[in-house]
Write a structure and sequence with these properties.
By secondary structure, the chain is an alpha/beta fold. About 45% of the residues lie in helices and about 20% in strands. It has helices at about 5-20, 40-55, 70-80, 110-130, 170-180, 190-200, 210-215, 240-245, 245-280, 290-305, 310-325; strands spanning about 25-30, 60-65, 85, 135-150, 165, 185, 205, 220-240, 285. Strands 1, 2, 3, 4, 5, 6, 7, 8 and 9 form a 9-stranded mixed β-sheet that branches. The longest helix is centred in the C-terminal third of the chain and has 35 residues, at about 245-280. The N and C termini lie far apart (about 45 Å).
Length: about 325
């Protein structure tokens, strides 16, 4: 763990000590998203619900917008016990549990509701991957679709050739960029704005909500509707901390996580539509494309890619396809 992360953790511990004095349990939660994002709104609702259900016995403190570090750094803190919970998928928790790649398989879901149904079907499998690595899956929130925001228009797959595409720091997204003919450039979410501005990257994929809340559209004026990814944002706790809780406190946290996930899912679609309108109002050109040329090479590569990750991962992928309503 680097010195900046240790210092940040120490400061947060000092600041939280007085606030948690009256509580039996302290639960600190980290997320990379701005406070306006629905993931952050869902996190705030989770905080409210846990404290209400526990009558203040559990003190929840949410840290937003990479305040405690990048997603990977916060996942590392959670695994080491310096943070109780992180909202993290592939860029963070997936760094230590590579099997989680399967939950973000491209062109698997039709919409966020479909994602929610599939996630319910595989949550026990995902937790079985996580627990040996020191994590416990408590719940999830939802995002999607991810589309392509670029500085030059992408109207066909050919326009992707050589494009410097920002991706999360995960092999799955490297494979996506390469399949599309782009140059994968792995940087943290917090560096995207300046990287678009400086020319380090030409494009970024993301949900409309993330693109607007992080203001990426101020530096790139074309949004191509590839709709390649819907994905969960798992709520992941340190396993040793989780195991040390009372049954009552575990039940309260699980119930609050489920209710907060439903709350965030209800906000997401409206937020996505509002973000699309904000981009249009901001002068972004929305480009509708024939998805098939983008989708078909990715699906062709996906089966072999997941199969190469092991029989246990491939079995979960098959369960996902069976549970999904996608064709």
């Amino acid at each position: 763990m680097n010195s900046k992360l240790l210092l940040t953790t120490a400061i947060s511990l000092v600041l939280s000590a007085g606030l948690a004095a009256a509580a039996d349990v302290t639960l600190r939660v980290g997320t990379v998203y701005q406070t306006t994002h629905t993931i952050s709104q869902g996190s705030a609702e989770f905080e409210r619900l846990v404290e209400e259900k526990s009558d203040g016995a559990i003190d929840v403190q949410v840290f937003y917008a990479e305040e405690l570090g990048s997603e990977r750094e916060m996942a590392e803190m959670t695994r080491a016990g310096g943070l109780e919970m992180v909202l993290s998928g592939l860029p963070g928790t997936g760094s230590f549990v590579p099997q989680l790649e399967v939950m973000e398989a491209f062109y698997t879901y039709t919409d966020v509701e479909d994602l929610a149904n599939v996630f319910d079907a595989i949550s026990d499998d995902l937790n079985a991957f996580m627990e040996p690595q020191g994590f416990h899956l408590v719940g999830t929130m939802y995002q999607g679709p991810r589309n392509l925001l670029s500085k030059t228009p992408v109207r066909s797959l050919e326009d992707m050739a050589g494009l410097k595409l920002r991706i999360p720091q995960t092999p799955l997204f490297v494979a996506l960029a390469q399949t599309w003919g782009a140059t994968p450039t792995a940087i943290s979410l917090g560096e995207v704005y300046t990287s678009l501005e400086s020319g380090v990257i030409d494009a970024v994929d993301g949900t409309s909500e993330t693109i607007v809340s992080s203001k990426f559209f101020e530096r790139a004026g074309y949004l191509t509707l590839t709709r390649h990814n819907f994905y969960p944002q798992p709520m992941v706790a340190n396993k040793a901390w989780w195991d040390g809780l009372s049954d009552e406190h575990r039940q309260i946290i699980e119930e609050a996580a489920a209710e907060a996930g439903e709350f965030q899912l209800g906000l997401h679609k409206a937020a996505d539509e509002a973000a699309m309108q904000a981009m249009v109002d901001g002068g972004v050109e929305i480009i509708e494309v024939d998805i098939a040329p983008f989708r078909e090479p990715v699906l062709a590569a996906m089966d072999e890619y997941v199969k190469s990750k092991g029989d246990d991962v491939y079995a979960v992928y098959q369960k996902m396809l069976e549970a999904s309503s996608a064709e």
